[in-house]
Amino acid sequence: MNNYYDPIEYVVKPEEDGFLLKTILQKRLQVSRKLMSRLKLTEQGITLNGERVYISVKVKAGDVVAIRMEKETSDDILPQPIPFDILYEDDALLIINKQAGIIVHPTHGHYTDTLANGVVYYWQQRGEQYRFRPVHRLDQETSGVLAVAKNPYVHQHISEQLIAGLVNKKYLALVHGSPVPPKGSVDGPIDRDPLEPHRRIVTPTGYSALTHYEVLEHYKYGSLVQLILESGRTHQIRVHMTHIGCPLIGDKMYQLTNKAELPEELAKKMDELDQSIERQALHAAELAFTHPISGEYMTFQAPLPSDMIQLKERLQKEDNKSE
């Protein structure tokens, strides 16, 4: 039985003749120090022209450098037949359109009925061995594009793109009111709320957080807003939109503190809208990054889910009533 994934190979170029193998691994294949140490411990982890060698040897033009990672499984995750929507899959990546209401990964006290349980079951049924490695997070109630890496090399590369700001993440949200101006940025440091640690607040002593927004559609009682994150703080979009007076519709945790001061009709309408959807109206609509193996810049999109479509139609009907 083959205990390794397919090799990732690199052919040494003429101008690289005489380079150290270690340099090729670090500079051309972008193998991290941590992964390098791991590969060195396995029999076929690092090879030159099919032979296991020390990384201190010099390479020649035309040499084939290869890394092979041992197959892994998520033995700590119980396989469960939980359906999920696949947007794209190859030997390196699984791109999922996550449904609202499902937790991505088992947590303390919640070991089953997560997306991870369903993915592990799916791979098991196909006779494939992978460890569940999501490369970013989505809140339980947030729907949309989620990327899962199938090996540590792919996970490392996309994580580095995230840190470098090279991953494009676009979200769509339905919010109360309408941001002013209709296109702008919210630059507000975020940290835990000292009174309610599970919540986050904008505070001068918090961690830097930047959100770019643009109103795509404006209604009498709300707006469809596109958001792009420059950072990835917990609940960032929800916190920032509430901070500028436009909380997400349906968000039970982040609401306006001055709601009692609003006109009675507006406050009533906000309550009605919040009750018309069972979660915050937030959707990860697009994710784009460079594929770690092919080098191709790829864009993945997830259509607006039915509950947000229905909420959007409700907002449009309110507009028609006032005409």
What is the CATH class designation of the largest domain?
A: Alpha Beta
**CATH architecture tag of the largest domain:** 2-Layer Sandwich
Estimate what percentage of residues fall within beta strands: 25-35%
Proportion in helices:
10-25%
The overall pLDDT, averaged over residues, is 93
End-to-end distance: 70 Å
Number of strands: 16
The name of the CATH topology of the largest domain is Pseudouridine synthase
Q: What's the CATH H-level superfamily name of the largest domain?
A: Pseudouridine synthase
Q: Give me the Rg, rounded.
A: 24 Å
The largest sheet, given as strand count, sense and whether it forms a barrel, is: 10 strands, mixed
Structural class: alpha+beta
Order of helices and strands: EHHEEEEEHEEHEEEEEEHHEEH
Catalytic activity: a uridine in RNA = a pseudouridine in RNA
Family: Belongs to the pseudouridine synthase RluA family.
Organism: Paenibacillus sediminis
Pfam families: PseudoU_synth_2
